[in-house]
Amino acid sequence: MLLRTSILLLIPIWICTGHTSFHQGRPRFGMKIEHQFKTEKINNFARGYGASEGNFDQKLDHFSNSTSTWSQHYYWNEQYSNTKQSTVFLMLGGEGPESKSWVENEDYPFIKWAKQFRAFVFSLEHRFYGKSQPTSNLTIENLKYLSSQQAIEDVALFINTMNKHFNFNSPTWIVFGGSYAGALALWARQKHPELIAGAVGSSAPLQAVMDFWQYLQVVESSLQQPKYGECANRVKQGFQSITELMSTTEGREQLSKTFTYVLILYLSLNITLYSSFAAYDNKNFINTPNSYKKYIKSLQNETFSDNNSKFHLLVFVWRFLLFKCLEEIFRLNSVVAFHYSGDERAWTWQQCTEFGYFQSTDANTIFGAVTPNNLFINICRDVFGKNYNADFIAESVHKTLKYYGGADGYTGTNVIIPNGSLDPWHVLGKTKNSTNPSVIVYSIKGGAHCSDMYPVTEKPNPDIIKLHEIITNNLDKWINGPLNQVTAVKINNTWSGPQEFVETPTRIKRSLKPTRKIDNNKEMTREYPTSTQFRKMHFGRPPLGFTPYLGTGESRESTGYENGVFSQPYDHFDNQNPKRFQQRYHKNGQFSKEGGRNFLIIGGEGPANKNWVLDTKLPILKWAQEFEATVYLLEHRYYGNSTVQRDQDKPNSELKYLTSLQMLYDVAEFIKQTNIKLGGNPMWITFGGSYSGALSLWMRELFPDLVRGAVGSSAPLQAKMDFYEYLQVVEASIRRYNNTCAENIGKAFKEMHELVLTPEGRKNLSDTFTLQPEWNNTSKLDDTSVQYFFSKIFGQFQSAVLNNGVNNGAYSTGYGISEMCNLMLNSKKEPLQNVADFNEYMITFYTGTNFTHTENDYNEYVEYLKSPSDTAGQSTRYWMWQTCTEFGYFSSTDLGDGIFGSPTPLNMYTKMCEDVFGKEHTTDNIEKKVAETNRLYGGKNNYTGTNVFIPNGSLDPWHVLGKLNSNDSSVVPFLINGTAHCADIYPARPEDMPGLADAKQRRQQLWCHKQKLEQLMNVVFSDECTFQIDFNSRSYFIQKGSYFDRLRPCAKYPVNIHVWGEILVRSATTLAIFPEKFRLDSEKYCQIIREIYVPFNNLAYNGFSRLVQGNAPSHQSAYTKRMFEENNVAFLSWPAESPDLNPVELVWGSMKNHIKNIVRPINLDELIEGVSCYWNEVMKPDKCSAYINTIHIRITDVIA
C-alpha cells in the first residue's frame, strides 16, 4: 500500500505545475495546451464563413544568402475584421502543433479582443512543429535551422507577406503568445518594432538558464500553502519511500512492476520518476518501455510520424481522487487532448542549443535529490552527439541571454507580461517593474501557467479579470491612440549591472593607535594544529588552504622583520558600530630604502604564515631585493589570529562581517594608515594567490588611487554557483598525463555506482574504503549520505590535480597526478582497489598519521562545522561561509558524462549550507548572492582594473574562473601550460615546466618595465603645435571616366589654429586652442600654466608633479621663471626640445595624420572640431600610457 501511495503521489506532482506527460519540463505537445471544452461558440454566420488554414513559402535560413524555402502552416479568420481599418492579431505557435481553435474559439480572450477591435486574426505554427516541417527528417544537420532567432524572422516575413497578400493598408499588428511562444512574441516586438505595434507574452520565460532548479522550488511552495493541508508532506513521504525502495534489489523490482503499469500512460521523460533511476550512473535496471536506452532511441528517431509508434499515440485522461488539493489548484476537470508530431526531439534540440531550462532537484525540496542537472546534459550528448556537452550548452545559454538580454535586459516597449504566482516558469519571466510605462509587468495571484489565455471560469480569479481590462485598454492605445514616439521605435538601452562601487564611509574618529608591534620572541603562533579528523578537500579547497606555506627555505627573521597587529573596525560600512578587532600583519624591511616601494601580500582563507615575507627563495622576496621594497603580509579577517569575537547567543552572528568587500576595505585602511606613518604617497603593489589573488586584483580595481599595480595568481574572478568545470578540468588533466589512468578511474567509479545500489555492494564499499561509520547490509542510506561519500573520494583526485608539481613542501615531490596514476595503473589490483589505495595515500598525507579509516558521516561533519574548536576547522567553516554567501564555487558532478559519473549534484552543497548556517541559506539566496558578487566586481569578463598581471595554470581547475584574455595592454593574463594552482608564487627550480619559467620571467620583465614607468608617474609632458588647412589650387587632374564627386573641396588659402596640451601616464588634461594668427608670448604662456597646469597639479598630485616643457623663448623668459617660482612648479631634467623624446610630439604627429586623412576640414570650425574630438575621444589613459611607454626605448636609440 505504501508503494502504491508513493507512485500515485508522483503523478499529480507534475499536474500541480499545470502539465501532464512531461518531457524536460514541457507537457507533451507544448506548453500551450489546447482545452476541449464542453461548449464552443464558433460564429460561422457573421460573414458567411469562419476559420481557414493555409501555407505560404517561408525562407529556410534567414541568416544566409540561401534562397531555399519551405511551406509553413497557418490559420486565419477574417470574419471579425473591419475592411476600413487594418488591425491584425497574430497568435504565435510554440513548441507543439498549432490549433485552429486559436482563431475561432470565442471563449478565448484572444478572440474576444479580436471581435471588440474588429481585428483580422492569424495563428502561425512554429517551424519544425506540427505540420510546419521545413525538412523531411530531423537530422542534426536539418535541426540547425531550428532556433528562436529563425522563428522570429519567420514572423517578420509572415507579416510582410500577409500585408501584400491581403492588401492591408498601414496595418497595426499585435502579437500574442504563451509560454515559449510568449517569449517569442516579446522578442519579436523587441527585434521588429517597425512591424509590430505591441505584444502580449503570457508566462514568457525570457531568462535562459541551464539549471532550472527553481522549478520544483515553486511547486513545493505552492503545495505548502495552508489550505492544501498535508499535501506537501505526503508528497515528501512518497519520494522518501521511493528512495528507500531504490536501495534494494527487491525494492527496485517492486518499483519496476508498478512503473510498468503507470508509465505505459506516463509517456515521456517524467523527471521525478525517471531520474530516480538514472541518477546512479544512468544504469538501465528498470525494464519498462520508458527505460533510458528506449527513451534515447526514441529521441534519436529522425523520421517521426503519427503512425510509426503506438508508444507516442496517447490521450492522457486522469482524475485525482486522492489529491483533491492539486485538483483544486489547477482545476483540470476536463479532458486534455494531445496530437503527437515529432516535437520531443525538436524541443530537446532547442533546450540543448538555446535555453537549457533543465529542471533538476538542486533546490533541496520535498522531491529529494533524485535528478541532477547532469542527467539532462547526458541526454543532450546521447541524443545529438558528444559535442553537445556541458560547455556547449552553457555557452549556448550565454549566447541566448546576450542576444535577447534576458529578463532584466529586455528592451522591448508596448508589451504586457503576465505571470502566474503558482507557475514555476514565472521565475524566468520579467517580474521587475520597468521604468518605461509602456512595459507592463503583471503578477496573477494564484494563477497557473498561461492561465490568463484561457476562458474565464465560473468563479474567476480577480487578478485575471483585472489583467484582461489592462490588456483591453492597452490594445486600444496601440490601435487607436496617437503615435508615441518613445515606444513606437526600438529602444536599445542594454541592461548592465551596477557600475558604482561602495564609497569609503565616514569613519569614527580613533583615540587609539592603529598599529602595535609584538615582541617577535613572543609571537602569536596560531597555525594549523594537530587535529586531523576532518582534514580533507572541502568545497574544492584543500584542508590547509589554497596557498599554504609548506616550504623549508631560508626564513630566518631579519633585522627588518616586524610582527604586529592593526586595529580594524568590525564593519567599514556602519560608522555607528564601535567594535574593533586586531588584524595580524608581518613586515620585512631588510631590502627597503627610505621612500621606496611597498609590496603587500594579501592573506587568504587561512592563517598568515610569516615565512611569506622571510623566505628569500620566494619570487616576491627576490623582487623586493631587486626593487628595494618593503614586504608586508596582512592576514585576512577571521582567519588565523585576526579573529572577530562571536556572540554566543546568536548563531553565526560573528560571520556577518566576513566578506571579501570588508577585507578589501581592511587592506585600504591598512595602506592609508601606513602611508600616514611613512609620510608622502608611496607606491603599493599587491600580491595574492587563489582567492587572495582575486582580492589583489579587486584592490587595484576598487582602489587605484592606493594601489599602483597588482598580481593575482590563479585568481577566480568569476563567482559561480555550479562550478561543474572543476571536475571537467580534473579529468582533462589526468587524461593529458595518461589516458589509461583516467579510464581506470572511470571503471572504478562505475563499479562504485553499481555497488551502492545493493546492501551487499554497500558493505563491499565500506570494507574496501574502511568507512567510519561503516555501511552494512541493514544500513539505510539517504541521498545525501551517498553523495557525501562520493564527494570525499573524488575530492582526493581534485586535490592531486590542484597541487600537482607545485614547489611547495611535500607537493614538490609527491601527492600529484604522477603518484595518483602510479597507483591507478597497478595491473595487479582491480581499479576499485587502486582508488581505495589512492584514498588511503592522500588521507595519510593530510593527517600525518597512519591510515585508520575514511570519515563518512555527513551529519557528524555538519555538527563539526557548526562550531569547530581547531584552527583548521574554523578556517574551513569561514571559507564555507564565504562560498555560501558570496562565491558558490560548488564542484558538482553535473558536467555530463565523466569518469566520476554523476553522484554529487549541486544540491548536496547547497543543502550543507542550509544545514550548517541555517534555513535562510537556500539555493535561491545563494544564487542571488553569487550574482551580487559578479555585479560588484564585474566577474572575469567585466573586470575593470588596470596594471595587473594574471597568471593561471592550464592544469588548475580554477583557471576556468580566471581572466584569460584582455584587450587592455595593461591587463596581462598569462596561461602557464602544464602547471597547477598558484605554481608561479613558489620558488623556481630547474625542473619547472618551460611555461612556468616563462611566466616568472614575463612577470619580472613587466615589473622592470613598470618600475621605469613608475619613475614617470608624476611627470606631466606639455607642448604646443600649429594645425592648418593646407593651401590648394583647386586644380585636379583626373582620369577619364573617374567619379569626381567623391573628391572633397579644400580650402584655397591656409587656415590655422594653435594648440597647447599636456599628457601624463593616467590621462590627458584640457587642450587649449587659440585662434589663427595667435602668438604665444610669455604672458599668454604663463596664463595657460596658471589656469590649467597649476590647478591640476594641486588636485591630482598635491603639488608634487614635475613638468616637462619645450625650450621656446616664452618658456625660458625671466617673466615665466618668476611665475614658476611663485607657483612652486618643479621640472624633470629632460632634453625637452628633442622630438624623439617628448611623447607629446608623437601625439601631434598622429593627430595631424588624422586631421589630414580622416577629418579633411574645409573651414575653421571643422578644423577646431576635428582637433577637439581627437583629443577628447582618443587620448584616453591607455593611449597616454602607450605614448609615454616609448620613452625608455627611444632614450636607448638616441644614446646609441
UniProtKB/TrEMBL annotation:
GO terms for molecular function: dipeptidyl-peptidase activity; serine-type exopeptidase activity. Keywords: Glycoprotein, Hydrolase, Protease, Signal. The keyword Calcium does not apply. One of its GO terms (biological process) is proteolysis. Residues 1-18 form the signal peptide. Residues 1019-1167 form the Tc1-like transposase DDE domain. InterPro entries: AB_hydrolase_fold, Peptidase_S28, Ser_carbopepase_S28_SKS, Tc1-like_DDE_dom. Belongs to the peptidase S28 family. This is DDE_3 domain-containing protein.
